[in-house]
């Protein structure tokens, strides 16, 4: 008896007793009752337990019903529906951020569970309408009970419906979408919903992968429901930052959802007590023009705070990056006068030919028109040997880069090319993975000449070479392409600074001492502001001394 007074939930040992308590607490007061909930209620005997004491715990900000649910239905049993209940510190941080975006007249939690987000929202905004959806009738009853105990029943509604099928009524004012969308892997998602994902994404002219988890579906549904001026914050697994199926979330944040920030919780922090998963809080303001987003690594849940701060990353860099997690990582604080290379230049690895034996040749040995032969850097040692500037193409091999449309060629050139392609096919050049992925298997698709070329994998720092001869490059080198025009002298200064400042320690070292600089990693190298680069055009310049008028 003493234990029950200390913990009035001790008698809640199964779902039936949990439903009974939810009914006793006033779950029926909240509109939106479904047939499944009514059926549960009719099968459950009322009464049992110290309802007043449980209500006191709920009014104190605790969630005894949700805690009991997670105890009765273990993590393995909850996994098919993606039911992972969010700790209060995360809920509070997200509500705190949302409060800074304005006062909503409606709050929607797309996976309401026991109602933790709606309760926090109801306390923060006493006049907001609170709407929650869930597909589990037990969860819906818990949310109703919690809302009723907190005197929010008259301005709340719980719908037992898949969020993707929610029918929202027209609404005046700002809506805040907030919550923890269920994490369900793609192989547990019905084929009809995978078709829905593709169809709905196509309405936004966005690609979608059938491998997307349920949380990606919820981002897309939110983009469908939201109106300009709405705001939102979702916590999900962080894997969408990098995986192919996560491209849809990345595209939505950069466009329809108006992404503002992503706060990535360190995996070692274990944000959810009963689930081994990563965590990322995505904040968005619908209708805003995304020129940049803040990406912030967070060491612990307690460090989330009001979801402020983070590294500002331009839209251009976010659009280019195939993975966002490298952009989240903390770089050493830049000294005054320095910026990241990526702010000045895009870094692109050279094109993959798919069959160098076919597409790379000695110019004296290939009988093709000169306008399809491009002198190119095909070995890293060519850049190491070039020194500060590559000014002579005579020692380079050529890459055979044919137009996708062979009709562009004159008759004589076309005959030579067709003869070459017959030989190339006999060598299997049309059957390589790369060739099959091209628009035309015979067109390598070299990039334009980069004003600065760089090696990226060696046991020595990269070579940064001015490309005065305008050589092309394949995938053994990176090309640095200015985002905005830089004068030749500024480019000279940039190449000189990189040559004399970059160390092996700034790359990723593998077994055996081989060090590699991926394009995004190279973009994070510190370099001087453009106005300072002129002073690095010669080795005798004084570092970081601004040019005087």
Number of helices: 22
How far is the first residue's CA from the last residue's CA? 85 Å
Multimer state? single chain
Shape call = elongated
What's the Cα radius of gyration? 30 Å
In terms of per-residue confidence, which ranges show pLDDT below 50 for 5 or more consecutive residues? 539-549
**How many E-type strands?**
22
| Class computed from helices, strands and strand pairing | alpha/beta
Helix coverage percent: 25-40%
* Biggest beta sheet attributes: 9 strands, mixed
Strand order of the largest sheet: 3-2-1-4-5-7-6-8-9
| Average pLDDT figure | 90
Strand content: 15-25%
Q: Could you give the topology of this structure?
A:
Layout: H1 2-6, H2 15-24, H3 35-43, H4 51-59, H5 64-72, H6 75-78, H7 88-99, E1 106-109, H8 116-124, E2 129-134, H9 137-149, E3 156-160, E4 175-179, H10 191-203, H11 214-225, E5 231-236, H12 247-254, E6 259-265, E7 279-285, E8 292-298, E9 311-314, H13 315-320, H14 325-328, E10 338-340, H15 341-344, E11 345-349, H16 356-359, E12 360-361, E13 373-377, H17 380-386, E14 398-400, H18 411-426, H19 433-437, E15 452-454, E16 457-458, E17 464-466, E18 472-473, E19 478-482, H20 488-501, E20 508-509, E21 515-516, H21 519-523, E22 526-528, H22 530-533
Helix pairs in contact: 2-9, 7-8
């Amino acid at each position: 008896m003493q234990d029950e007074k200390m913990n009035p939930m001790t008698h809640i040992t199964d779902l039936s007793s949990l439903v009974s308590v939810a009914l006793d607490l006033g779950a029926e007061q909240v509109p939106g009752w479904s047939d499944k909930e009514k059926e549960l209620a009719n099968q459950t005997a009322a009464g049992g337990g110290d309802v007043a004491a449980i209500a006191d715990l709920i009014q104190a900000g605790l969630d005894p019903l949700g805690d009991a649910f997670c105890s009765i239905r273990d993590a393995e049993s909850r996994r098919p529906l993606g039911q992972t209940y969010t700790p209060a510190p995360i809920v509070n941080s997200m509500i705190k951020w949302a409060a800074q975006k304005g006062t909503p007249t409606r709050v929607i939690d797309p996976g309401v569970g026991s109602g933790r987000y709606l309760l926090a929202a109801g306390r923060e905004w006493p006049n907001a309408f609170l709407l929650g959806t869930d597909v589990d009738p037990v969860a819906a009853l818990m949310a109703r009970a919690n809302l009723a105990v907190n005197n929010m029943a008259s301005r709340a509604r719980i719908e037992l419906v898949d969020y993707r099928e929610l029918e929202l009524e027209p609404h005046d004012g700002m809506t805040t979408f907030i919550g923890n969308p269920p994490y369900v892997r793609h192989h547990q998602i019905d084929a009809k919903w995978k078709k829905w994902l593709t169809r709905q994404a196509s309405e936004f002219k966005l690609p979608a992968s059938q491998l997307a988890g349920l949380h990606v579906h919820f981002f897309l549904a939110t983009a469908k429901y939201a109106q300009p001026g709405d705001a939102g914050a979702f916590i999900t697994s962080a894997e969408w930052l990098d995986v192919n199926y996560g491209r849809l979330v990345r595209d939505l944040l950069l466009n329809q959802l108006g992404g503002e920030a992503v706060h990535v919780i360190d995996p070692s922090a274990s944000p959810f007590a009963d689930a081994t998963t990563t965590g990322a809080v995505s904040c968005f303001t619908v209708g805003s023009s995304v020129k940049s987003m803040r990406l912030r690594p967070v060491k612990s849940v307690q460090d989330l705070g009001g979801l402020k701060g983070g590294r500002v990353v331009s839209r251009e860099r976010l659009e280019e990056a195939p993975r966002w997690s490298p952009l989240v990582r903390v770089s050493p604080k830049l000294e005054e006068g320095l910026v990241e290379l990526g702010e000045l230049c895009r870094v692109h690895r050279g094109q993959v030919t798919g069959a160098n034996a076919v597409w790379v040749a000695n110019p004296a040995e290939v009988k093709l028109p000169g306008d399809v032969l491009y002198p190119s850097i095909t070995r890293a040692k060519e850049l190491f040997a070039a020194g500060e500037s590559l000014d002579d193409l005579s020692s380079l091999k050529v890459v055979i880069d044919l137009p996708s449309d062979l009709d562009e060629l004159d008759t004589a050139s076309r005959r030579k090319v067709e003869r070459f392609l017959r030989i190339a096919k006999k060598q299997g050049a049309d059957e390589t993975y790369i060739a099959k992925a091209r628009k035309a298997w015979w067109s390598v698709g070299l990039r334009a000449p980069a004003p600065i070329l760089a090696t990226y994998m060696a046991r020595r720092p990269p070579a940064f070479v001015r490309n005065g001869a305008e050589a092309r490059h394949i995938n053994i080198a990176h090309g640095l392409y200015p985002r905005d025009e830089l004068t030749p002298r500024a480019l000279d200064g940039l190449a000189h600074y990189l040559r004399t400042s970059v160390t092996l320690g700034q790359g990723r070292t593998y077994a055996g001492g081989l060090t590699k600089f991926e394009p995004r990693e190279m973009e994070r190298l510190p370099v001087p502001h453009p106005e300072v680069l002129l002073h690095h055009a010669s080795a005798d310049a004084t570092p970081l001394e601004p040019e005087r008028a």
